[in-house]
Amino acid sequence: MISVAVLGASGRMGATTVHAVDSADDLTLVAALDAGDEVAMAARAGAQVVVDFTVPSATEANVHAAIEAGLHAVVGTTGWTADALGRVDEHLKERPELGVLIAPNFALGAVLAMKLSAAAAPYFESVEIVELHHPDKVDAPSGTARHTAAGIAAARAAAGVASSPDATSQDPDGARGAVLDGVHVHAVRLRGLVAHEEILMGNPGEQFTIRTDSFDRVSFMPGVLLGIRKVAAHPGLTVGLDGYMTL
Ligand SMILES: NC(=O)C1=CN([C@@H]2O[C@H](COP(=O)(O)OP(=O)(O)OC[C@H]3O[C@@H](n4cnc5c(N)ncnc54)[C@H](OP(=O)(O)O)[C@@H]3O)[C@@H](O)[C@H]2O)C=CC1
Ligand SMILES: O=C(O)C1=N[C@H](C(=O)O)C[C@H](O)C1
């Protein structure tokens, strides 16, 4: 039995995670914590793993507090920078037995979309990303889009592929979107949506589109549970659920 504490337990993802952990025979929920609660309360409740679905401004401090408390951490909250990941990596050297998984998206379709887009991107002249989410989301572009763009950029750089062609010379209103690692990313916020991403790739005469849709937050739960079950077996920092999967 793995003892689990959920941070951000009253939020959209936290509440879904509490239900999923409660429903799993091999997991037991020992703490459901929210803003104002100390992460150390999870350790005092007997947790082995904390799951963080909070807010970008709180998640890094929560992970450092989890490491201090001797807890493994499974993190879905977005907003992680390379510097913040580096600080966690450094902190984990003091506790080499602990695992921290930071995954921008736990939906299996999204994990596959990120892998497939990195594999395909060197073979196309043009690549752009459209991410589409519910309007209550606080960050844009999504963590998934950032991770997707980084994977695509790394794959194209390794293959020596040039930037996507773009004749735009006048864009006073930013209609071409954000540019992340050289990849244009467009963010849509629309009532009725949950979490969606489209990766568009083009060559002369053809288009290749990878699309992933989460219509319900239950779509993230198989990945979250996989992370909880495997985090102790993966000491150190892992970024992306694909690090726990054979793909
Ligand atoms: N990796 C993945 O697969 C997914 C990641 N996400 C990400 O997860 C995060 C949460 O999303 P979502 O559930 O929709 O957001 P919500 O706003 O619904 O939930 C966030 C919760 O965290 C609480 N909170 C804020 N600060 C703290 C803190 N310091 N400690 C503990 N709890 C805190 C909030 O409480 P209060 O309201 O009182 O401030 C709220 O209950 C976002 O970054 C989102 O992008 C979302 C879906 C999937
Ligand atoms: O806020 C959300 O809802 C989501 N956040 C994550 C992100 O920013 O990529 C994962 C998923 O897209 C849902």
UniProtKB/TrEMBL annotation:
GO molecular function terms listed in the Swiss-Prot or TrEMBL record: 4-hydroxy-tetrahydrodipicolinate reductase; NAD binding; NADP binding; oxidoreductase activity, acting on CH or CH2 groups, NAD or NADP as acceptor
PANTHER family (UniProt xref): 4-HYDROXY-TETRAHYDRODIPICOLINATE REDUCTASE 1, CHLOROPLASTIC-RELATED, DIHYDRODIPICOLINATE REDUCTASE
CDD domains in the record: DHDPR_N
Cited InterPro entries: DapB_C, DapB_N, DapB_N_CS, DHDPR_bac, NAD(P)-bd_dom_sf
Record field: catalytic activity: (S)-2,3,4,5-tetrahydrodipicolinate + NAD(+) + H2O = (2S,4S)-4-hydroxy-2,3,4,5-tetrahydrodipicolinate + NADH + H(+); (S)-2,3,4,5-tetrahydrodipicolinate + NADP(+) + H2O = (2S,4S)-4-hydroxy-2,3,4,5-tetrahydrodipicolinate + NADPH + H(+)
Oligomeric and partner information: Homotetramer.
Organism: Demequina capsici
Domain Dihydrodipicolinate reductase C-terminal stretches: 109-238
GO cellular component, as recorded: cytosol
Pathway: Amino-acid biosynthesis; L-lysine biosynthesis via DAP pathway; (S)-tetrahydrodipicolinate from L-aspartate: step 4/4
Protein name as annotated: 4-hydroxy-tetrahydrodipicolinate reductase
PROSITE patterns recorded: DAPB
Gene that specifies this protein: dapB
GO terms under biological process: diaminopimelate biosynthetic process; lysine biosynthetic process via diaminopimelate
Main localization, broad class: cytoplasm
